[in-house]
Design a protein that fits this description.
The chain is globular. 23% of the residues lie in helices and 40% in strands. The two termini are 17 Å apart. The model has no long low-confidence stretch (mean pLDDT 91). Strands 1, 2, 3, 4, 5, 6, 7 and 8 form an eight-stranded mixed sheet that branches. The longest helix is centred in the first third of the chain and has 13 residues. It has a single domain, classed as Nucleoside Triphosphate Pyrophosphohydrolase (Alpha-Beta Complex). It has 146 residues and is α+β, with helices and mostly antiparallel strands.
């Protein structure tokens, strides 16, 4: 069973998302990705966020666990606080950076207004709805299974 770690990163009322064009299927998702065999979920979160954005996580709190189709049967979604930073960018050496170079699977980072998040073509509608609700009412103190 595959696992993935994903980050909710919000700064100045802007929400960080990853635009994907995967074999012609266009959508948005959260920053993050698969947990490798030799690492924990928290380690994967830190690694994936660094590779995909250059950001360093200061703290993260697990807020949602999403059952998902293969290859990632469980996604662990963290509300993250990141260290001060300049521009963000996908690491050219990362899997996403390599795919971008080959123009196979496009990955683009976007800061969007939080109020616009509900209108995105988001990969998993149940997670999108949970985040929209949390943006209005606050994120859960304990992880919620979706």
């Amino acid at each position: 069973m595959g696992k993935a770690a994903r980050a909710i990163i919000i700064e100045n009322d802007k929400f960080l998302v990853m635009y994907r064009n995967k074999y012609g299927s266009e959508y948005y998702t959260l920053v993050g990705g698969r947990v490798l065999d030799n690492e924990g979920i928290g380690e994967a979160l830190v690694r994936e966020v660094r590779e995909e954005t250059g950001l360093k996580i200061r703290s993260g709190r697990l807020v949602f666990i999403e059952e998902h189709a293969a290859p990632y049967n469980e996604q662990y979604i963290y509300l993250c606080d990141v260290e001060s930073h300049g521009d963000i960018a996908i690491d050219d050496a990362s899997e996403e950076g390599q795919m971008n170079k080959l123009d196979m699977n496009v990955h683009r980072l976007h800061w969007i207004q939080s109020k616009s998040f509900a209108q995105l073509q988001f990969r998993t509608p149940q997670l999108q709805q949970a985040i929209v609700t949390a943006l209005k009412k606050g994120f859960p103190k304990e992880p919620v299974k979706l």
